[in-house]
Design a protein that fits this description.
Layout: H1 15-27, E1 33-40, E2 50-51, H2 55-63, H3 69-77, H4 82-89, E3 96-99, E4 105-106, E5 113-118, H5 119-124, H6 126-149, E6 154-157, H7 167-177, E7 182-183, H8 186-192, H9 202-206, H10 211-221, E8 227-229, H11 235-252, E9 259-262, H12 267-280, E10 287-290, H13 296-304, E11 311-314, H14 316-319, E12 329-336, E13 339-340, E14 357-363, E15 369-376, E16 384-386, E17 394-396, E18 401-404, E19 407-411, E20 414-415, H15 421-432, E21 449-452, H16 454-468
Parallel strand pairs: 6-7, 6-11, 8-9, 9-10, 10-11, 15-21
Antiparallel strand pairs: 1-5, 1-12, 2-4, 3-5, 3-19, 12-13, 14-15, 14-18, 16-17, 19-20
C-alpha cells in the first residue's frame, strides 16, 4: 500500500528551505559536510517527559525522497533556476541519521536525532522531519498519559473524525506507540497492523422502530464480541434493561454479550448503576465501555471514584493532543565543514549546543533512569554533568551505569533497522517502567536531570566569545 507523501516528498517543505538550497547551490556550498540536531525545549501537557515517535515514517519517506517531473515543473513556475532544478532532478537523500529508538522516553534540550550529510540535504529535510517527529511524539506522549491513567484497562483510539484532516492517520500510529490497544481508524489499522475496533453509533439505534429491536438486530449480525450502546434514549430505564434482555437471549443460544457502552451523562454514576443491574442479572462477565470527551484527567477521576469501567474510548483530546497544541521541537545546524556551529540567543537556555554530540543515559543501581548527559560523540561518559544554562547546578553520575541513547538508524540514505508499531509500543512501555514515578505524575512532575559535559559547555562559551566578544571586556 502506497504511503503518504512518497510521491511528492520533495515538495513537503517550507518555501525558504528551497530558496536557501538554491542559494547554497549557486554559491558552491551545497555539498559542504554538515550535522544538524533535532531537540525540543519544553515537555507538553505540563508533564515530565516526551515519548519519541514518528521515526519509522521519517526513515521510510527519506528512502523515497526525490523530486519528480511534476514537482520540478511546478518549481520552475516559481522562478527556481534551471541549474538548480537539474540538481534536484538527480537528488536523493544520502545522509546518515543517528536517533533515539522509536518509543524512547526523552527530555528537553537533549538531541533526539542527529542528521549528518551535506548542508543542502540536511536543510531540505528539516520541515519534513519536524512535521513528523513533533506531531507523532506529541500524540504518543498524550496517549501514554491516558493509558497510564487507565491503570491497565483497555484504551481505544476513537479520534479520527475529530483529527486535523489526514494527520489523523499518523495520530493513530502515534497513539498505538503510546499504549493505545486499538483504533477506530481502519486505514491506520491496515497500514500499520493495528487492531481495529468499534461498536455502533446512535444512528443504528435510531434506525429501528425501537431500542430493543435494534439491539436484537445487532446481536444477530455480530454475535461474537457484541457491545451495545445503551444511552440513546434512557440509559438506566431503557438501555441497560434492554441489553440485559438481549444478553439473556444470546445465552439461550450459547452466546454471550461482550459489553455495553456509555457515551453521555455522569459516567461514574451511570457505570456504577449499570454494573449493579448487570450483576443482579447474573451478567458479571459483561464489560462496561465509556466514551465522550475523555482525557487523562477524566479517566483518572473516574477510576478514583471507583467507577467499574473496563475500557475507555478516547477521541478528540487524544488525537488532537488537547492541552498542548504543538511540541516545540527545533532543528539546528551544529557542525559545518568540520567547524562547530551554534545558534545564539539572549536566553542562554535557548542557545543550541555546538558540535557532533551523543546522549548518554545514566541508570541508577536498580536500572532506573537517573539523568541524561549530552557529550561530544567521541567523549567518554562523565563523572559530573552540568546544567546547560545554570552553571552552578550539576549532577554526579560517577556511580551510575551509562548507556548510549542515539543509534545509527540510516546510512547512505538506507534504513539500517526498522521496528513495527507494536515493537515500538512494547519498547515504550518497558522504558516508561524505568522512569521513576515522580517524573510521570500529572501535577508538578519532578524535573528530570539533563546536563552536558564540561568540555561541551566550554566550547559553547568559547564560541559565544568568538561571535560576541568577552562580556567582561
Amino acid at each position: 500500500m502506497e504511503r503518504l507523501l512518497h510521491k511528492h516528498a520533495g515538495l513537503f517543505t517550507d518555501f525558504y528551505e528551497l530558496s536557501m538550497a538554491q542559494g547554497w547551490h549557486a554559491a558552491g556550498r551545497a555539498e559542504a559536510p554538515a550535522a544538524f540536531d533535532y531537540f525540543f525545549r519544553q515537555n507538553p501537557f505540563g508533564g515530565g517527559y516526551v515519548l519519541f515517535a514518528g521515526l519509522g515514517d521519517l526513515l521510510e519517506i527519506l528512502e523515497a525522497y526525490s523530486f519528480g517531473e511534476d514537482d520540478l515543473a511546478y518549481l520552475a513556475t516559481l522562478g527556481f533556476h534551471r541549474p538548480f532544478l537539474d540538481y534536484l532532478e538527480k537528488f536523493r537523500f544520502k545522509g546518515t541519521i543517528w536517533s533515539a529508538r522509536e518509543g524512547e522516553v526523552v527530555f528537553p534540550l537533549e538531541p533526539v536525532v542527529r542528521v549528518e550529510g551535506t548542508l543542502l540535504e540536511g536543510q531540505l529535510i528539516e520541515t519534513l522531519l519536524l512535521n513528523l517527529l513533533n506531531f507523532q511524539s506529541l500524540v504518543a506522549t498524550k496517549a501514554s498519559r491516558v493509558t497510564a491513567a487507565a491503570r491497565g484497562r483497555r484504551v481505544v483510539d476513537f479520534g479520527l473524525r475529530r483529527a486535523q484532516g489526514m494527520a489523523g492517520i499518523q495520530a493513530s500510529r502515534a497513539a498505538a506507540i503510546g499504549g493505545v490497544e486499538a483504533t477506530s481508524n481502519v486505514y491506520a489499522a491496515a497500514l500499520w497492523g493495528l487492531t481495529p475496533a468499534g461498536t455502533q453509533a446512535h444512528a443504528w439505534i435510531q434506525s429501528f422502530p425501537d431500542e430493543l429491536s435494534s439491539f436484537r438486530a445487532y446481536a444477530e449480525a455480530f454475535p461474537e464480541g457484541c457491545t451495545l450502546l445503551v444511552d440513546t434514549y434512557d440509559t438506566l430505564r431503557s438501555g441497560v434493561p434492554n441489553a440485559v434482555k438481549v444478553a439473556k437471549e444470546l445465552e439461550a443460544k450459547g452466546g454471550s454479550l461482550s459489553g455495553i457502552r456509555l457515551d453521555s451523562g455522569d459516567l461514574a454514576y451511570l457505570s456504577k448503576k449499570s454494573r449493579q443491574i448487570l450483576d443482579d442479572a447474573g451478567l458479571t462477565q459483561v464489560k462496561i465501555v465509556v466514551s465522550n470527551q475523555l482525557d487523562e484527567n477524566i479517566v483518572k477521576s473516574l477510576l478514583d471514584q471507583k467507577a467499574p469501567i473496563n475500557a475507555f474510548g478516547v477521541g478528540t483530546h487524544l488525537i488532537t493532543a488537547q492541552g498542548t497544541p504543538a511540541l516545540d521541537g527545533v532543528y539546528k545546524l551544529s557542525m559545518l565543514d568540520g567547524e562547530p556551529r551554534l545558534k545564539l540567543t539572549e536566553n542562554l537556555s535557548k542557545a543550541s549546543l555546538p558540535g557532533v554530540k551523543k546522549v548518554v543515559r545514566y541508570l541508577d543501581a536498580e536500572g532506573n533512569f537517573f539523568a541524561d548527559g549530552i557529550h561530544f560523540a567521541d567523549e567518554k561518559p562523565a563523572a559530573v554533568i552540568h546544567h546547560p544554562a545554570q552553571s552552578n547546578q550539576k549532577s554526579r553520575v560517577a556511580q551510575c551505569f551509562p548507556e548510549n541513547l542515539l543509534f545509527k538508524m540510516m546510512e547512505g540514505g538506507r534504513t539500517l533497522s526498522t521496528w513495527s508499531v507494536s515493537e515500538a509500543a512494547a519498547y515504550a512501555q518497558g522504558r516508561l517502567a524505568k522512569l521513576p514515578s515522580e517524573h510521570k505524575r500529572f501535577e508538578n512532575p519532578h524535573v528530570y536531570k539533563v546536563g552536558a559535559s564540561k568540555a561541551l559547555l566550554d566550547l559553547r562559551k568559547d564560541l559565544i566569545r568568538k561571535y560576541l566578544g568577552d562580556p567582561e571586556e
